[in-house]
Amino acid sequence: MFRPAPTHPAPAIPQFAPGTGAPAIPPVQTARPEPARAAPTHPPIPRVAPTAPVRSAPRSSWQSPSDAHLAAGLAATGPVPRVSSVIGHGREPGVLRPAPGQREPSTVDPTAAPVTPVPDSGRAGEHPDLDLLGPLAPFATGATDLFVNGGAGLWADRGAGAEPVAGWQADEAAVRELAVRLVARGGRHVDDAHPAVDVRLGRGIRVHVVLPPVATAGTLVSVRIPRGGSRSLAGLLHGDVPTPDPGALAVEARLRRAVRARENLLITGAGGTGKTTLLAALLAEASPRERIVVVEDVAELVIGHPHVVGLEARQANLEGAGRIGLDALVREALRMRPDRIVVGECRGPELRELLGALNTGHDGGAGTLHANSLADVPARLEALGGAAGLAPDVLARQSVSAIDLVVHLERRDGRRRIAAIGRLVMRDGSLVADPEDLA
């Protein structure tokens, strides 16, 4: 908000003492001077002690004893308190305040229900930043996705599909307040003018929020939680199987050759199929002497490589200025002397920039794309190319030249797998994807 500049009295003209050599300036009187008035005196303002301790928290941390109080209530065996009783009464982003009439103690109220500690998010396999989810943290253990559907409840996916979670209770007002705070915690904003937003918390936790009336059934919060640390390509493809399937070994060998030969890769699949996880595992196979520059809308990639730098898109501010999109970031990445350029997800004008970069000597690059099957990839590219201003024939020629290998993923019965590997080719004037035979 712009504020008017403060006004100050004009400085007094210095008076020269007689005999200093300065010419005397006769005073000019335009009006009869008024007698000087004594400055009014006021009694000192008394210092009023607050009736309750006042506590503030930095914007960069989620601090509130109310969180602990909420966790206590949610873990109690008795009636579950409503989330709205502790959320929604403060307006500072990232700070939860108690409801009117409740005190804000420096520690958890000893009269509250017993607290079940939030599981140690730093242990193997768990993300180290689960505590950033505030009241959702106790429900995130072992989950890859959390879904808050307005006041209808909380769902979690722990590998077997989304299932309702017992012990969570929140009305629409509380869920909206939680959504606003999570977004603010990640440095962005969501409101009626901007009702949908993605944001990153900590090291790769992705939060997506949609407010009503765009979300017809109430505020929707979707949380994607990457597994703690990065996984190797072999561990990702074979898991704990002592004797991997020959077909899986052939896929692993093909992917390793692609990375070492610096082929440009496009990882495709529907949402939740593991595109980001596979891409991170593939990039970890790159030479440690290579510099990898990653461009993402919301930073998610965790790559086990010694030289990775990332660029993240920026949302416009409340005045509508300051937005930095992926297409601009791809251009900036080209100036950073990358050995590999990676775009986390192609879904707009950045596709044009990425294809241009991969066609001008920047090999070894990669990106991800939403598609239902390997055969559908050309149609998805054409749709995105049209949105980016590329004619179909131009898009087809650039894609064939720029993309060396397409790896398609799918998820069936709760399990993610590589469904097909193929190449983009031109056939009868059309862009098609031909599967590779790895037998």
Automatic annotation (TrEMBL):
Span list, region Disordered: 1-68, 87-114
GO molecular function annotation: ATP hydrolysis activity
Biased composition annotated in UniProt, kind: Pro residues: 1-12
Source organism, top-level taxon: Bacteria
Domain Bacterial type II secretion system protein E: 179-405
Signal peptide segment: none
A Pfam family: T2SSE
Extent of Low complexity compositional bias: 30-40, 105-114
PANTHER family in the cross-refs: TWITCHING MOTILITY PROTEIN PILT (PTHR30486), TYPE IV PILUS RETRACTATION ATPASE PILT (PTHR30486:SF6)
Family affiliation: Belongs to the GSP E family.
Annotated protein name in UniProt: Bacterial type II secretion system protein E domain-containing protein
Native organism: Agromyces seonyuensis
